[in-house]
Amino acid sequence: MIISVIGSSNPATREHVDLAEAVGRELARRDIKVVCGGLSGIMEAVCRGAKAEGGTTIGILPGRAAAEANSYVDIPIVTSMGYSRNVIVVHTGEAVIAVGGAYGTLSEIGHALSDGIPVIGLKTWPLTTNGDGIEINGAIIQADSAFDAVEKAVAAVASRNHR
Question: Which 8-state DSSP code applies to residue 68?
Answer without folding.
Answer: G
